[in-house]
Write a structure and sequence with these properties.
Elements: E1 13-19, E2 49-50, H1 53-56, E3 59-68, E4 75-83, H2 86-91, E5 95-96, H3 101-105, E6 111-112, E7 116-125, E8 131-140, E9 150-156, E10 163-164, E11 173-179
Length: 180
C-alpha cells in the first residue's frame, strides 16, 4: 500500500499526484498557483489529485516519488525546504536547488534525457521565460536552456517531453508529492 513511509521515517502527507501524460497538472495549469483542490477524494492509486495539504500544510521536507503504474517500486528523493504550504513555492519564481543530474535520472532508470541545460528545482524556466517544469530538471540537445525538450519531474510543460526508450512513453508513470 502507498503511504508516506516510502519517503522515510515519520509522518508524510500526500499533497499531489499526477499521471505521466495527464494534462491536468501541466506546468502552465492554474492548479499550481491557486487553492482549488482537484479530485481530493481520489484513492491513493487513482490518477490526478491535488489535496488540501498542497495549499494548507506547512512543511520542512518534500518527497518526490515516481513509479510505473503497475509496479510496486517507488523511486524517491527528499528535499529539505522549510516553507509555508507548497502553494507558496509554486506561486513564487524560479528556485534552483542544484541536485545532480544523476539524482534526477535515478527517478526514471533507462530514460532518455538530453545532456545539456540541467537546470533543476521549482518553477524551472527556459531561457525565454517559459515554465518548463514545476518541480524537476530540464534537458536540452543544444548547449543552453533556450529550447529544452526533455525533463524529469512533475508539472512538465506542454512543449517538453519526458522520454523513455527514446519514444516519449511516459504514460505509464505516476508522480507523487509528499510533504512533512
Amino acid at each position: 500500500m502507498l503511504d508516506g513511509s516510502i519517503c522515510g521515517a515519520g509522518v508524510w502527507t500526500l499533497a499531489m499526484k499526477s499521471k505521466g501524460n495527464s494534462d491536468v497538472f501541466k506546468a502552465d495549469s492554474d492548479y499550481w498557483t491557486n487553492t482549488k483542490s482537484y479530485n481530493h477524494y481520489a484513492s491513493l492509486f487513482g490518477w490526478d489529485a491535488k489535496y488540501n495539504a498542497f495549499h494548507s500544510l506547512p512543511f520542512n521536507k518534500i518527497c518526490l516519488a515516481i513509479k510505473k503504474y503497475h509496479e510496486n517500486t517507488y523511486r524517491t528523493f527528499v528535499v529539505y525546504k522549510t516553507s509555508s504550504p507548497l502553494l507558496s513555492i509554486f506561486q513564487g519564481g524560479e528556485l534552483e536547488i542544484g541536485l545532480s543530474r544523476d539524482k534526477w535520472s535515478a527517478l526514471r532508470p533507462g530514460a532518455y534525457f538530453q545532456d545539456n541545460c540541467n537546470k533543476n528545482g521549482f518553477n524551472i524556466r527556459d531561457n525565454r521565460g517559459g515554465v518548463g517544469v514545476r518541480f524537476g530538471i530540464l534537458g536540452n540537445n543544444e548547449n543552453d536552456c533556450s529550447s529544452p525538450d526533455s525533463a524529469i519531474g512533475i508539472g512538465i510543460g506542454s512543449y517538453v517531453k519526458t522520454y523513455m526508450n527514446n519514444q516519449g512513453d511516459h504514460s505509464s508513470y505516476i508522480a507523487y508529492l509528499f510533504v512533512k
